[in-house]
Amino acid sequence: MKADTRYAILSLLTGILAFASSAMLVYEHLQIAKDASHVSVCDMNAILNCGTVMRTPFAEAFGFPNPYIGLVGYAITITIATAMLAGARFSRWYWLCMNVGHVLAFCFILYLWFNTTFVIGALCLFCMIVWIMQTILMTKTTAHNIQTGVIPAPEHIRRAVAGWSWFVVILIFVLLFGIIIIHFFDQIINSF
Asked: Which stretch is the leader sequence (predicted)?
């Protein structure tokens, strides 16, 4: 029960932050659609430049702006978390589907991370907030499913996964953002 409540609170908070970031991206995308010369609120310099990222084909991977996916996905995440806090219980198949959804969303985030870092050469601040929140959601959902027996695992793994899941989150952050720092190192140093 405590694991469910902790997971629900974490899921609610990360879902809200990711939803808000997606909403800002939708707003900025609409402003760019109305005025091609619009300067986004997160256009800070050559590296941190949402407008540059939003003006590429990668910003519409499925033929419509990517942030719309975030609005729908994180609204579902917030709804599930709120339902859990209200006492709702979900079937094993539901948890597995949610886990698959979070893993697929994380894979999409990796695709976007790769393209913004290595192809576009600019980063989007609100996109990075979504990357961070989705990494937490995917890792903690998987950990929750292992802890609660949705994903079968030996007892010693089920007990250990709670503590190790934060280590996995931090490891993913170090890898993703470490590569970003290495890739943009010369530009970062020259901007000071």
From this structure: none
